[in-house]
Amino acid sequence: MLIHAPAKLNLCLYLGGSRPDGRHELCSLFCPIGLADLIEVSEAERDEVICGDLDGDNLAARALAALRAQGWERPPLRIEISKRIPVAAGLGGASADAAAVLGLARGEVSDLEEVAFELGADVPSQLPPSFALVGGAGERVERLPDPARHSILLLPRGGLPTADVFAEADRLGIGRSAEELEALRSRLREAAGAGDSPLRYRDLLVNDLEPAATSLRPEIAADLEALREVGAAAALLSGSGPTVFGVFADLPAARRGAERIRSEDAIVCDAGRLP
Question: Which active-site residues does the annotation give?
């Protein structure tokens, strides 16, 4: 069995206050994109998760262990992950892999969404990968119609721990009230619920973590400006960063932007209603 585990973007991320469990309330639109890890699953003598680009434990291995702890009795599996999604880049690659593994037990393990949230805040929304309005700390997932097809130009970066960005956001006093988050949720539901391109509601494409991430990695500001200069209709931080992305109307426009930006690391892919 070969599974595609797509990366996701936060088309917006509005930050609320911290919770007693240490997580933060948020309101976000999660959008799968064409960039994906490839996961090959086969029967084996013992459970084994192999990811040549990562040393030691990984979230996919923890997902398989969590299924076994829930009593999942399928024969032992060998799961081999070929990484295409940059690691620790704010693109949800580890969460995508974990969700793909959990999906093997759909209909066979109860409370799969709860198991997903225990693994990580981004995992439930990718079970399965879909366009979604996400709230709470990631556990409230409201599936929405796929947006009209659009294209993305990514400038992937790594090495910025999520916990550091949220701590910096707290230090800077970034955070919205529960009432403001709920009002934004209503606006996003109305704007995105019709399946339009996100370029139709670009005024809502905001990432509240951008000042915190830029405070820790000032080069993020230059990356965002570079995307705007090559024609991105919107340029944002993805998740807690440090990857940034530009939104374009179509693939040719995104490719022209990539040619002008002249970054060897740039990635162009489709989003929205993927083939």
Answer: 8, 122
